[in-house]
Write a structure and sequence with these properties.
The protein is mainly alpha-helical. It is 75% helix and 0% strand. The chain is globular and about 65 Å long. It starts with 14 loop residues before the first helix and ends with a helix. It is found in: Membrane.
């Protein structure tokens, strides 16, 4: 991102744009102050007192994922790889979100745990709990750094402030509302941010499409300049780095669609925390399913503008063809904004970008402070204090994590395509956790010793693949290293867990009710269909079926 301070990317923002930005920040801080009034216990601060309706948590579920990474990273992928990037949404997100809603959420919500690591504690005991809590905490700090770095980059482009000043100011804004109102402030801001992000990206996509002559014009331009492989989602060889079509499809379906996607969506507490804040089990189940409707359409707002930039912005075309120039793929969206948006609209677009980064970072911080306070501090460091102690601790942890995120922001600055960095983190932290989770949830024989040893060795397997790819032992360009790493983590974790389980003693069946599928009575994992949960349109399974049909159609049309 060395290029961002350069004049060629300076956006020509006028007084109207700054006014719109100031108004947006006033709203954000106002929500933080209002949410503070409803915080009287640690459960209110960390889980919104489990009182929010499904449409609020559903939109927050998606906004928490619409961070910098999603918007800048996916538009960078669109500029670099074209249509195969669609897989991150239609293969690498939707099926896993539906599985979380229909199958996993009843266990999370029904067992009344406060976090994903706490579920691990109940199922596998302390060792697995500690391993999971620490690895999750580290991952959140690294990912918060990515969001913070991109947030600062925008401020740097806008105002020309040095990057380190921008990083600190951006961090203080997010800290102010997350520290005030806890999860409620983060969630209500995420709902606001969702609408601001759409209002920002929709005009950009429409103006961009008009500029290149509509869909047929874009297909023409991309096809003639870069070849037909950027115009169809399958087999996606450039994205995976595999020469063979079969291996590429296998990498996308197993590595991305199964291990990385299910690992991310079903065990990532950043997302699950939003559903846990719902007011009933039915609302908790509907949260990721409601989120899946906008999630299907977001590629048209982030990947298509990336492709338009790759096919029509002069600097990006030169960079793509020669690998030279002062821009990189992460700049795709900013370059398009610079070229296409008039003042006023530019202010909305910038507010949308800032909103996306703040949503992502606030989601990282609010989940980090919950896991650190409940699963590390209260469980292992200082126990049995009054609730007010942990509430204050949560606020201080938010401050500490923001400071650390400022440090990790500079690690992220070393990557020209941030999606590569992120997929790497997910294959390290989420893939082994998913393997442990899914085996432990459906196989009652799995033992506490298998819980932690599978996690540790699965993570080690993913790390080995990463190091071999970095040192050139394995030749895996694109995002192939993270797909292979995720697959290795999953397979090793499962094998180790099975072997260790057969050699050690399982927990008694009575202790696993509510935690293992076969031992939990059907009525305990079935949401109510009366009162506020009545009506066919509130049935989780039916809603999930509708989403699945639409996604299959999208894959056929754009495949």
């Amino acid at each position: 991102m060395h290029v961002l301070a350069q004049e060629q990317l300076r956006l020509d923002a006028g007084p109207v744009d700054y006014l719109l930005l100031a108004l947006y920040f006033a709203f954000v801080l106002g929500i933080g102050l209002l949410a503070r009034r409803s915080v009287s216990s640690s459960l209110d601060f960390f889980l919104s007192g489990r009182s929010l309706p499904a449409w609020v948590t559903g939109l927050a579920f998606i906004a928490a994922n619409l961070g910098a990474v999603e918007i800048i990273g996916m538009s960078a992928n669109g500029a670099q790889y074209g249509m195969p990037t669609m897989h991150y949404f239609w293969v690498g997100a939707i099926p896993a979100m539906l599985f979380l809603g229909v199958v996993m959420m009843p266990f999370y919500y029904g067992s009344k745990v406060r976090s994903v690591p706490e579920f691990m504690l109940r199922r596998f005991g302390k060792a697995a709990h500690l391993v999971n809590a620490i690895s999750f905490a580290v991952a959140q700090l690294l990912i918060a750094g990515v969001n913070l770095f991109l947030l600062a980059s925008i401020v740097n482009v806008l105002l020309g402030w040095p990057l380190w000043v921008s990083v600190i100011i951006a961090a203080l804004i997010v800290l102010s509302y997350t520290g005030l109102g806890g999860l409620s402030a983060a969630i209500y801001n995420e709902v606001l941010q969702f609408f601001v992000i759409v209002a920002a990206l929709l005009p950009l996509t429409i103006v961009g499409m008009i500029k290149v002559g509509g869909w047929s014009g874009l297909v023409d331009k991309v096809g003639t300049q870069y070849g037909a492989n950027e115009l169809s989602a399958w087999p996606g060889n450039e994205l995976t780095g595999f020469g063979s079509n079969f291996l590429s499809v296998l990498g996308i379906v197993f590595g991305l669609g199964f291990v990385l996607a299910f690992g991310y969506w079903t065990t990532n507490f950043v997302e699950v925390q939003r559903a846990m804040a719902s007011k009933s089990m039915s609302a908790a189940q509907r949260t990721p399913i409601i989120g899946a409707f906008p999630k299907m359409l977001i590629p048209f707002l982030v990947i298509i503008p990336g492709m338009i930039a790759g096919a029509s912005v002069q600097e990006m075309m030169v960079f793509k063809q020669t690998g030279e120039g002062n821009v990189e793929y992460n700049d795709a969206l900013l370059l398009l904004m610079r070229d296409l948006l008039p003042n006023g609209i530019l202010g909305i677009a910038l507010a949308g970008l800032l909103a996306s980064f703040m949503a992502g970072m606030a989601a990282n911080l609010s989940s980090f402070n919950t896991v650190f306070t409940y699963d590390i501090w209260q469980a292992y460091v200082i126990r049995n204090r009054p609730d007010s102690y942990y509430l204050n601790m949560g606020r201080w942890v938010t401050v500490g994590s923001t400071v650390i995120a400022i440090g990790t922001a500079f690690i992220a600055s070393g990557y020209s395509n941030l999606m590569d960095y992120l997929q790497q983190l997910f294959s390290l932290f989420n893939a082994p956790l998913f393997a442990t989770f899914i085996l432990g949830m459906f196989w009652k024989r799995m033992t506490p010793a298998a819980g932690w040893s599978g996690l540790v060795l699965g993570t080690a397997a993913s790390l080995s693949v990463f190091l071999m790819a970095e040192t050139g032992v394995l030749d895996l360009p694109g995002q192939g290293a993270s797909f292979v790493g995720a697959g290795a983590a999953f397979v090793v974790d499962i094998l180790v867990s099975v072997v260790v389980s057969l050699a050690t003693r399982p927990k008694p069946a009575a202790e696993l009710v509510g935690l293992v599928y076969g031992l939990t009575p059907k009525e305990d994992r079935t949401a109510s269909t009366t009162g506020e949960d009545a009506g066919w349109y509130r049935r989780p399974a039916l809603l999930a079926g509708i989403v699945l049909v639409i996604v299959i159609i999208l894959n056929i049309v754009f495949g």
